[in-house]
Design brief:
With 155 residues, the protein is α+β, with helices and mostly antiparallel strands. 15% of the residues lie in helices and 46% in strands. The protein is built from 3 helices and 11 strands. A 6-stranded mixed sheet has the order 8-1-2-11-10-9. Strands 3-6-7-5-4 form a 5-stranded mixed sheet. Strand 6 and strand 7 form a beta hairpin. The chain starts with a helix and ends with a helix. 21% of the residues are buried.
Length: 155
């Protein structure tokens, strides 16, 4: 009986990759993360949205790369040795790269450690966030990857 209760608790826990933009921490559900790569040459695509930086060649596959900073209305990306491109695996085997300042760690959060947030239509950033996770003293804004992607197609 104790094993079943433990199993139920495990089901309520999710892993998130914690990334940073400046001093703010965000979490991406690890189920969507296919790969994390160092920054590389990005080929511009004419007439693309301003937040689309272009495409990269990842082991023979062309992957579009988006600046999540610009998408959220933050200042432009600054590149350091910590900057990375996170390759997201989406439905229908679609892939998308997002540029981040730094990848910190993987955390496991239970539903009791996540507060749902309400969206403020005037705040672009809040439309991409579906919760705030509490990891010790740290607060981590959790991305709703689907809203990040959907908005891309609607823009």
């Amino acid at each position: 009986m104790a094993a079943r209760k433990l199993e139920t608790m495990e089901d309520n826990r999710k892993q998130y990759i914690v990334i940073k933009f400046g001093n703010e921490q965000y979490g991406i559900d690890i189920r969507y993360v296919d790969n994390i790569v160092r920054l590389q040459k990005i080929t511009r695509v004419p007439k693309a949205q301003p937040y689309f930086k272009g495409v990269i060649n990842l082991r023979g596959e062309v992957v579009p790369v988006m600046s999540l900073r610009l998408k959220m209305g933050l200042e432009n990306d600054t590149f350091t040795n910590s900057s990375r491109i996170i390759i997201l695996k989406l439905e229908q085997q679609e892939v998308l790269g997002i540029m981040v300042d730094e990848v910190k760690e993987v955390v496991t959060l239970g539903t009791d450690e996540i507060d749902r947030v309400t969206h403020n239509p005037k705040d672009v950033k809040s439309t991409f966030i579906n919760g705030v996770g509490k990891n010790g003293e740290d607060l981590i804004s959790l991305f709703d990857i689907n809203s990040v992607i959907e908005e891309k197609e609607n823009s």
